[in-house]
Amino acid sequence: MTPRRLVLAALLGLLVTGACTDQVPTFDDGSAIPIDAETVEVLLPFSEFGRDFQVFGGFGSQADLAGFYVAHEYRGDFSARTLIRLGAFPASISVFPEGESTTVPDSAYVPLGGNLVIRMDTTRSVPEEAVELEAGHMLAPEWDIRTASWQAAVDTLGRRVDWGEAGGGPVRSLGTGMWDPQEADTLVIPVDSATVNQWREADESVDRSVRVESRSSGHLLGINSLELRARLQSSVNPDTVVTVVRGIVGSTFIYNPEPGVSQEEIRIGGAPARRAFFRIQLPDRFEEGSAACEVLPTCPMDLDRDRVVYAGLVMQTRPVEPPAFEPLDTLRLDVRPTLSPERIPRSPLGSSVQPTARTFPPGVFAADGSTRVEVPMTRYVQDLLGIPDDDPQQRDEVPSTVALLSPAEPSGFQFGSLFGPGTEGEPFLRLILTITDGVQLP
Fold first, then answer.
1. Measured between alpha carbons, how far is 231 from 116 in angstroms, rounded to an integer?
2. Which of 53, 128, 139, 213 is the most exposed place for a label (fewest CB within 10 A)?
3. Are residues 43 and 147 in the same domain?
4. Of 232, 256, 280, which marks where a domain is finished?
5. Domain presence at residue 393
6. Which of 243, 244, 115, 124 is nearest to 186 (CA)?
7. What is the pLDDT along the chain (442 residues), one digit of tens a residue?
């Protein structure tokens, strides 16, 4: 009988004996079946496991967000403006002719004016003083809700149209209003009858466009909704005035400056959102001179999946620049395999490598809030190490390129920033390895 079979037979005998009693079988001599195992923590720098780092933007649009923003010289020179398209007016209103009990349609009604009612966000970034907002009728001949920016009215594939004036083009002022957050959550700006009549006769929603901006410096203000409440006088019964509400049929907000992306840092979130990609290429063997050999008991040493007890991607947050883009809410980070690396940045993504997305409280992206975050990815790393080099089909089933992103894109226009490869706080891979020579015979 071979030595391996002798050991297995001895172990089976112990199991049988233990099954006949209520006591756990033990040996006074702990060296009867010696197993020499050692657990070691290995910290791999990015240069020893990461390749092809890239950062891209352009995922989603500001138009996908539920709320809008306005700002003027906020935390420096940041400005934001909200662009709104209003719904069409009704072809007719129903009124009772004088002395009649049955309504008739009235298509010749006369607009008397109305009010823009702006409902403000009173939960975040609320000023302690009254602020002034201005609404204007946009005069641009066209603009695209999903691609409009501070400089461009339209920026679709193969076509770009700039505003006549940066920041939403020229407007005709509709008026201003003061909003005091201590008194109300809405701001009302009157609209004259000529403008309401012009919007009524407009054929396209672009001709019913409104731009809202802040006239007060130093504040970031959120807008939850906007609607026009128009007063319409009946031509059938002039004593009848009907109020109709025209809501939003399209909206976005534009801002300046646009921070874009940086290849020296990992940027997550924003609107449009940003993603970071890189390929994980783990060594098959730790050679002399590697970071791992500084802590391993022996080197060279093979790296295989059975040695890996734990694996985690460790990153460090950094201050967001410009500071106006520092998150006001909790930011979440996800890591997902990239299913078609050749199609980056538009590659489909697989399931998350971690049980739940990591969360960042807002303060960690401030100037004095740098902190370390670790993303567990043990099973994923084990699967990568378990791929045979001579089995390309199985290698395709476990993509080695991952994407770092926000689970909801976009969730806000602000983004999180972490140190990228080649910087002082670059990512590293934390491995906990169990090293053993197996079961040794006495």
1. 12
2. 128
3. no
4. 256
5. yes
6. 115
7. 433 333 333 333 433 344 443 443 444 544 444 456 788 999 999 999 999 999 999 899 999 988 899 999 999 899 999 999 999 999 999 999 888 888 899 999 999 999 999 999 998 778 889 999 999 999 998 999 999 999 999 999 889 999 989 999 999 999 999 999 999 999 999 999 999 999 999 888 788 999 999 999 999 999 999 999 999 999 999 999 999 999 999 999 999 999 888 888 999 999 999 999 999 999 989 988 888 888 988 889 989 888 999 999 999 999 999 999 998 888 999 999 999 999 999 999 999 998 888 888 888 998 887 889 999 999 999 999 986 555 555 555 789 999 999 988 888 889 999 999 999 899 999 999 998 765 444 4
Alpha-carbon dihedral 215, 218, 224, 229, rounded to 10 degrees? -10
Q: Which two tokens stand for residue 215?
A: 């006239």
- What's the domain range around 213? 78-256
Q: What 3-state DSSP class applies to 209?
A: strand
Same domain, 316 and 335: yes
How far apart CA 37 and CA 53 sit, in angstroms, is 36
Residue 156 neighbours by CB distance under 10 Å: 11
Residue of 210, 249, 224, 232 lying closest to 88 (CA atoms): 249
| DSSP-assigned letter for residue 393 | H
Number of domains in the chain: 2
Burial label for 1, CB within 10 Å (0-12, 13-18, 19+), is exposed
Domain termination residue (choose one: 256, 281, 305): 256
The answer to whether residues 164 and 252 belong to one domain is: yes
| Claim to verify: residue 356 and residue 413 sit in the same structural domain | yes
Domain for residue 67, yes or no? no
Same domain, 247 and 286: no
Contact 427, 268 (CB under 8 A): no
The token duo for 7 is 């050991």
